[in-house]
Amino acid sequence: MSLQGPLIVVAESPATALVEALGEAGAFPIVETKWADAPTAFVSVKPSAVIIAEPGPPVSESASRMLCLQIATAAGPIVPTIAFADDEHDAAIPLALTTDASMPFAHVIKRLQSAMRVRALHTTVLRRIEIFASHGGKMPLLPIGDALDDATVLVAGRGPLYPALSVAMGEQAKMVGALSVEAAARHLNERDIDSIVIGDGFSPRMVEAFLTVLAQDSRFHEIPIAVIGEAPADFSELLPNIDHVGGEPSRLVSRMIPLIRLRAFESRLKRMLKSLEADGVFDPDTGLLTRDSFWHELTRSVAEAADRSQALSIARYSFDGALDARTRLDGARAVTRLIRNIDFACRDDDGAILIAFTQTDLRAAHVVARRIAAAIKTAMTSPNGDATPITANVTLASQKNGDTLDSLMQRVMGSRMVAAE
Which residues contact 22 (CB under 8 A, 6 or more apart)? Predict the structure, then answer.
């Protein structure tokens, strides 16, 4: 990823070695500044990224607050901020992506490149929004609010720190717990995970094996990872957002939160881009088709199935239990990675999920629908047993000769399969 700037490096003492490393990595131009001049430099330079090269606290509290406000409210794409920290000092500003001051500069650069990729994605989305609006397109409803509200963090561990770590993380984001590496791997396959914390209680060999699997899977190359306890082999070359951390669980969580927020924001951007590239037919909140687009596609599919004597089946998933908005979103988003490319789905006005299985007869659809129901329920249910049990009710119908869209949907609304409990 290109590091074309400008970049601002904030430090009271000259950060010569860091600036040289950035320059060798292709960063240009690089502007060095002290804390007192940092807000002025931010306004005049309009940087692509900021690096705070010394662990906090900042020399000037007022300059720190102003710089933090400027970064958070900058017009245009996000401005990634990397801040050094050590065992005694946290990052100088709370929104910064923390990196350990003892790590090699190569790791710092990889973390910056990872964050710059999210900035580039944000730039693309903003440009596509302008193009989409200029062509008279109806803008989809873009997700709003803190991206951290969308995040799910996997905390794996079985040592004495695990309970406190789980509580501290659960207070900040949705937390999924795992008492074994095998359970952690299962959660990674079943859920959308935005960060991983590997707690105490595992042997170095077990942690190394787990990290090796993560490094070999492209889905997890840039996921934020925190490893507690004895450090296994160095994975910083393969996993740019990995840290070996210690200290109190609350401090670990505070260091991880900016990375988790950035990862969740990246997921939002990808859903937005998918919607914009398809002229707004996808809902950027869930990744499924919008309701209008679904019915348009279903009408066409029913006609084509009748003309070509092809199979077509429709499934409707409704849910019983105390479901909040986040739980329903988790279920809807799970569908996007469960259905085949030839199938399509939407979230209906009442929160139910509709899936159309093209080229699929009733028997095959019955098997697939049950599997999807179980997977959706897993994504929606807290693995920690602290939520009301959820029942996924599935109704299913397949197109018959002479069927219209209305007659097919009447059967879908009334022909319930056995609930997946």
Answer: 3, 7, 9, 30, 51, 105, 109
Residue 418 pLDDT: 41
CATH superfamily of 286-414: Reverse transcriptase/Diguanylate cyclase domain (3.30.70.270)
Q: Which two tokens stand for residue 236?
A: 């910083």
Domain parsing of the chain, residue ranges: 4-139, 147-260, 286-414
pLDDT at 20: 94
Token pair in block for residue 209: 């094996």
Of the pLDDT bands very low, low, confident and very high (cuts 50, 70, 90), residue 367 is: very high
Residue 419 has phi, psi (to 5 degrees) of -65, 145
CATH superfamily for 4-139 is Response regulator (3.40.50.2300)
143 pLDDT above the threshold of 80: no
Please, are residues 30 and 3 in contact by the beta-carbon 8 Å criterion?
no
pTM of the model: 0.89
Tokens linked to 306: 């009748």
